[in-house]
Each structure stands twice: as structure tokens, then as C-alpha cells.
Amino acid sequence: MTLLDAHLVASLGAFRLDVALTADAGEVVALLGPNGAGKTTALRVLAGLHPIAGGHIRLGGTPIEGAPPHARRIGVVFQDYLLFPHLTALDNVAFGPRCQGIRRAEARRRAGDWLARMGLADSARAKPRQLSGGQAQRVALARALAPQPTLLLLDEPLAALDARTRLDTRAHLRRHLAGHPGVTILVTHDPVDAMILADRIVIVEQGRVVQTGDAATVTRQPRTDYVARLVGLNLYRGHGAGHAVALTGGLTLTTADVVDGQAFVAFPPSAVALHPHAPTGSPRNTWPATVDGVERHGDHIRVHLTGPVETAADITPAAAADLDLALGRQLWAAVKAAETRAYPASG
Amino acid sequence: MRGASSAPTGRIPVALALPAAAGLTFLVLPLVGLLTRTPWSDLPARLAAPGVLDALRLSLGTATAATVVSVILGVPLAWLLARSSFPGRRVVRALVTLPLVLPPVVGGVALLLVFGRRGLLGGWLENAFGVTVPFSTTAVVLAEAFVAMPFLVISVEGALRAADARYEEAAATLGATPWTAFRRITLPLVLPGLAAGTVLCWARALGEFGATITFAGNFPGRTQTMPLAVYLALESDPAAAIVLSLLLLVVSVAILAGLRERWMSVP
């Protein structure tokens, strides 16, 4: 059942946001995109904190785009949490229920339940400044969930945490988001957060939706350079005819998939082999390439290449030593057809 | 490497130390003069003199009433200046701070022109309600509030600007109406600024002289506050003026110290 049906049009200075978004009850949708893509603006428009210039927001069939934030049945976890500094953790969580007219004692009892569910029963009396980053994140989540919102909004919920806390909090967040009966919209620029926490990923660039799908689809078949870089793939656009895709750079790649018309070709950097001379033999996809950059990447070496197409190649340190990777060095790049993936650019 | 703001290393620049010492002397010396000239021997008798306690009671009462009026009207005004945007807001802010730069006597004259018998509101008040404001205790409160309220407005507006307005957004997403958000989130957050503004306002009201004597006159027991009593005594009985001054000084210091203990302590 579609619980959230939104078409968000808004402007912020010269920036224009135009994003359509739907979600079912219980679904967790991640808005993923680079900084400045308009993700947070979209979230603020949903919350009623930024004026909507056009479109609509229907929550459970009811239009809410004209309602003030306090009448929207929403919960927001802000990037820096915004826990009220003068209230204890318990009273922060009890604030929402209190605003719904629930008596103080009952609101506090519910808040206590929420804190216990978050594993924070011991911190109920702590003021926000006495909480660690991970604890503050959980209190913020409990506070947003306590009024039982239909729409839960999270703005970069893990961005303020250090790496170690992030890991624990991510697992914790995943558990609680899965249990939320309403719609959850999560804004993040971290693909790992999006893939772990969300059922569906909506990729936003420059105020527009560029791709939608589950994590597997998005990672296997990226549709923009941004997504390809996020998931670590080389991505090219071209024109397909059978097993051949003519790329815009002039190079034609042979692919295992059959594709006709406008198409994408993607392959991982580890599929690229580098040779000092033009290789003879099996790989049919070879092209001359120039070394443009070399960096260490975990236990392998990533080589950035220019040529008819820009390519990233991952090779072993031993192979790198044999190749003498000076900047500007001429090499040959090769990719087996079986390691490429080709898919239509439309749809 | 030590930061510039870390604990001093023991040396204070002479260029700062000398003017600082001179400034301190300048501020403290008049108080020393007051203390050395105080007629300590007949102090109890003079304090018990008729009218002294009346003036003190009137001063404390009117200053407190003027502060209450300033808080009730000034806090919403400060909120309007800090949080909303409307055409002419800069003009409004300038108007609010006008009593700060206006000589109090001029303020008193202006109040007379409004509340006097032939003033803008005075005639109407007298005809409709039979109320005459000038030269009454009410006039003392109005004169003090007129002069003292800007201190409160400026102080609270500054605190509101410093407080993060996004807390109010967070409250709204939790279902709080703007009024609830103001009452339960904004007001507690600016409480230190409100307390400081209230103390400033009260202190200014307690010391008010010019507007009071112009608008409310100098009637013992009704409009003669301590500053007026001091001024009057100075002409007939300087020793009495010193005693009154000392009393006002001790009472204000005691109240400010008490409030500081209660409200201004940083948790």
C-alpha cells in the first residue's frame, strides 16, 4: 500500500528541487546523492520546514503539503540531533507525547519504555551534553519515534559519529527502522548506509532523481558517473548493436550481454589488465592508455588512465612493479568481454 | 605551544594595567567618599526618621512593578525583533532603543504629553475611567518602565539571536505549536539572557530620576522614590542625603548579589 506519495518542487536561491517520491508502509527509502544535491532540502520540504513551491505530499491519502510541521504526524532525526539541551534524555523523548496532550506521568512512562528499547534506561536522567555521540543518536531516534509518526525522516543519521560508533549504531538503526510501521525516508551521502539501512535507494543529483532501485540493481547497473564512482565501477555510455557497444570516445567494446540502442557498459577496475605492449590473444577489448595517476587502494594499486576513455584499473603491487608506472607512461588496457555488463540507458 | 586564550603567564601589559587601575579607582572612589562621610554615630536614628522607609518601600515596589511590566511587554517585543521579519523592523529596533539615548527628563515630558490632562490619551482616560495618571504612583511605574524596558529588550533579543532557532524547528516536528515551542524550548534556552536583562532593567528602574520627577512629581509617600529623596535632602540636610544614598547602595548590592547567586550562576 502506498503510504507516501510526494512530488516535491522547491527552490533554494538559484537551486531548484524537483523530486517525485513514493513509499509503501514499512518501507525504508534512502535518498542518496552528493553534497548539494538537494537531499536535505527534500527532507525539509517533507517536514514542512521549507516551503513547497509546487507538487504535493499525500500521507495515507491525506494532502499535508499545506499543513504546518506540528500537524504532519512526522518524526525527524536531525543530522546534529538537536536534542533540547535543558531537558533530560527522558524529557526530550517525552516532549512529543506531551505535545499530543498526554499527561506528564504517562508521557514519561512511554519515554522510559522507548529509552529502554534503545538500551539507554540508565541514561534517562542525563542531559544531552553528558551523552556520547552514539547515545545522543539513539535518544534522537527515540524522541522522533515516541509520538508514533507515520513518516519518519532521518538526515544523515550517522554522519556525526566516529567510525567505530558508526558501525554499532548502523546495526542498531537498521533493527529499529525495520520495526517502524510507517514510511522511513533516510538522507545520506554514504552508499554503505543507504545499502544497509534502506529497502530502496533513490539517487538524487542536482535536484533530480537519476536512478531508483534496490541496492543490488543500483550497484550492478549504475546510470551516472556519480553512482558508478560510489560503487567503484568504470561506466561508459554508448550505442549498442548486438555484442558491440560503440562508446562516445570512439572505442568499441565487445560485451557478453546483448544490447541495442543507447546503452551503458560497466566493469570493475579489477577486470582491467595492463600490458606494456599491445597484447595478442584472447581479450578482444584493448586500447592504448596513458597513466594519469597512481594510488594505493587497500592491498592493491589503483591506476587512473586516460586515452579514448578514462579508466580506473586495480592491479597487484607486483604487477605495478613490472610495469614501471610513471606518470604519462603509455600502456595497453584490456578487459574480457565476460567481465563487462551492458544494459539499456533508457528505463 | 600555548594558545592565545590560555591561562596568563603572569605578566599583564602595562598599557592595559595602568588604565585598568585608573578605571577601577574612578569607579570605587565615589563609594569610598560616601562611606567616609557617612555619619555612623547617628545612623540608626536617621534611618528611623519618618519618610525614609516609605521612600525605600516605594522605590523597591515601583522598580519591581516596572520590571514586571517590562518583562510582560518586552519579551514578546524582543521575540518579534529576533525571530520574525516584517517591513520596517530596523526602524522598530531603533525606536525601541530610543529611550536609552533620550535624556530621561525629555522622556518625562513626552509621557506628560501623552498621559497629561490635555495629552493624547490622558483626556480620554480621565473622561472614560476617571483615571488621572500624572503625579501618581502609576506614573512612577510608567516613567521607570519607559526608561528601563529597552535594557530588557536588547538583552533578551541578543539571547534569542544567539539561541539556535532550529530547536524550535525540532519542537515543531514533534508536534509543538509555535506557542508551546516558545514556552517550553525557547524561553528556557534564553533564561540566562532574560535574567540578566531583568536585573539590568530593575537596576535602571531603581535609579530612575529625571523622567520620574518630571512625569510623577515629588510627593512623599506617593511618588518620592529614593533618588528623589536623596536629591531633595541634598539641599536641606546633606547628611541625610548621604544616609539615604548609603541605604540605596546597600539594598541594591544585596539584591543584585542575591539574584546573581540564584539566577546567574552557570551550571
From TrEMBL, chain A:
GO BP terms, alphabetized: molybdate ion transport
SUPFAM superfamilies in the record: MOP-like, P-loop containing nucleoside triphosphate hydrolases
Keyword set includes Membrane: no
Pfam families: ABC_tran, TOBE
GO molecular function: ATP binding; ATP hydrolysis activity
Highest taxon of source: Bacteria
Domain ABC transporter: 1-231
Residue ranges occupied by any Mop domain in the UniProt entry: 280-344
Assigned keywords, A-Z: ATP-binding, Molybdenum, Nucleotide-binding, Transport
Stored Gene3D superfamilies: 2.40.50.100, P-loop containing nucleotide triphosphate hydrolases (3.40.50.300)
Stated name of the protein: ABC transporter ATP-binding protein
Source organism per UniProt: Planosporangium flavigriseum
From TrEMBL, chain B:
Domain of life: Bacteria
Membrane topology annotation: Multi-pass membrane protein
Classification via InterPro entries: MetI-like, MetI-like_sf, ModB_ABC, NifC_ABC_porter
Major place of residence: membrane
ABC transmembrane type-1 domain span: 56-257
Entry-linked Gene3D superfamilies: MetI-like (1.10.3720.10)
Transmembrane segments: 12-35, 55-82, 94-115, 135-156, 185-205, 239-259
Subcellular location(s) per record: Cell membrane
GO molecular function terms noted in the UniProt entry: molybdate ion transmembrane transporter activity
UniProt xrefs under SUPFAM superfamilies: MetI-like (SSF161098)
Keywords annotated in UniProt: Cell membrane, Membrane, Molybdenum, Transmembrane, Transmembrane helix, Transport
GO CC, one annotated term: plasma membrane
Family membership: Belongs to the binding-protein-dependent transport system permease family. CysTW subfamily.
Function: Part of the binding-protein-dependent transport system for molybdenum; probably responsible for the translocation of the substrate across the membrane.
Identification of the protein by name: Molybdenum transport system permease
